[in-house]
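Continuing the batch. This is chain 6 of the set; chains 1 through 5 are on the previous pages. Same settings as before, nothing changed between runs. Recording input and output for traceability.
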Amino acid sequence: MTGFLIDEAAGKTRATLLLAHGAGAPMDSDFMNMLAAALARQGVRVLRFEFPYMVERRRSGTKKPPDRTPVLLQAFAAALDQAGAESVFIGGKSMGGRMATMLAVERRCRGVVCFGYPFHPPGKPEKTRLDHLPAMQAPLLICQGERDPFGRREEVLGYNLPAACTLHWIEQGDHDFRAPVRTGLLQNQQIKSAALATSKWFSHHNGQQ
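Output for chain 6:
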């Protein structure tokens, strides 16, 4: 598949996930590499792609800001068409996850998973990004760090999220699922927790046990 970075599932494939990166880091950042590898070990086939601004950033070496939302959604939709549309789940890290939820308002897919959903900009809890979620046409899983500045646990639990939304909390995790050193929780363990929860959620929504 042209343009995809593919991590094949170990053993039987439980699901295929079309996975988008966040605003500031590419599809092969340390976090994305660890996440894709952890998901693959749990039987998830992962297809990673990059938005146009990140493709240009990689080509030119110039740090461009993210594209505007219509451009991001168009690129995500094109990747979804190439990946097989309704046969795959979609999702992403932070901004990529938000774009997946917005795409799921317009397009059908098996489900959406977000790793660190940006519920609001850091320090601006009044500027929530929730209005479109009830219009999604697919179930939603959000793996969220309890200390994420884009939406801490105590904040998120106060939101009126759709019934089709499942939350999986990453213990003491920040936006990249890192916990304070004093906890003894390692980032790769936290990512493994998210990958395991995601694989189980996929199996449920694929009608598997």
